[in-house]
Automatic annotation (TrEMBL), chains A, B:
Matching InterPro entries: HTH_HxlR, WH-like_DNA-bd_sf, WH_DNA-bd_sf
Stretches assigned to the HTH hxlR-type domain: 21-119
Superkingdom field: Bacteria
Species the sequence originates in: Siphonobacter aquaeclarae
Keywords for the protein's UniProt record, in alphabetical order: DNA-binding, Transcription, Transcription regulation
One GO MF term attached to the UniProt entry: DNA binding
Keyword Transcription among record annotations: yes
Protein name: Transcriptional regulator, HxlR family
DNA sequence: ACAAGTACTTACCCTAAAGTAGGTGCCTAT
DNA sequence: ATAGGCACCTACTTTAGGGTAAGTACTTGT
């Protein structure tokens, strides 16, 4: 067991931090507003850059490319470019990225349940108004 | 079906936005760095203010109370204070908040899988170094 | 008398994240 | 000839999220 030498303390700290709060680790990778939204769209299938742009009209190009680059260095997203003109660039989830699909899916499920709940409340309120 | 009158367009927009991207709805509620971390600790059981503080040493009091208040108005967290001195305030998840447990749990699961993966990679790399 | 613990609140500051608005190079369609 | 689509890049500015440090009110412990 001589593997992991000097860096073992880092690893131990990481293990420690993880036991303290695993969610912190996740936030370091996909914290912020846009990343989970981008990941959601990629979870629906591989997308070209321009497809992502159209799928998320509210995001600026700067934010989109910036987060895509970061997701790439964090090995959550893979960028594949065909050397043609006009450019043809595809983004897809890596296997780590696909590991986040349950998270994204749980988020989507919750959102639907919440809004259905509001809907039901509203009908109920209107009904009891007379 | 005359329930929902003037406000129906808002509701329709919400439904539309939700179909476009349910994750956006989630981000409006729990986006940012700290909220999921707070929710994780509350998912482990009801906590007093000071317990949360100790559980999340990296957070400042300002951030903690600020996000707790916001989670309260968003009906994800319930604040219960006993009128005693010294104060005794407990925070717990509401039913909406409990609905997020699968999200938080999926995050925690992913974090553990990721770090185990890194660990395995590291051992593998060291082994093939000689 | 003083520190420490409870659960906050307030004022000030700073930085990192995000928005604005341009440009690049190359091609196709009108 | 000009506009538009592709996938970006860059400089500048704004905003909001977060950090620092102090104070509040009341009680218990030493």
């Amino acid at each position: 067991m001589t593997a992991i030498k000097e860096s073992s303390t880092i690893q131990q700290n990481k293990q420690f931090a993880l036991e303290q709060c695993p969610v912190t680790y996740v936030m370091e990778k996909i914290g912020g507003y846009w990343k989970p939204i981008i990941l959601y769209h990629l979870s629906q299938g591989d997308k070209r850059y321009s497809e992502l742009r159209r799928a998320i009209p509210a995001i600026t190009e700067k934010m989109l490319i910036q987060h895509l680059k970061q997701l790439e260095v964090d090995d959550l997203v893979l960028r594949e470019s065909k050397p043609v003109v006009p450019p043809f660039v595809t983004y897809r989830l890596t296997s780590s990225g696909r590991g986040l699909i349950p998270v994204i899916q749980a988020m989507a499920d919750w959102a639907f349940r919440e809004v259905r709940g509001e809907f039901a409340d509203r009908i109920h309120a209107s009904a009891s108004e007379g």
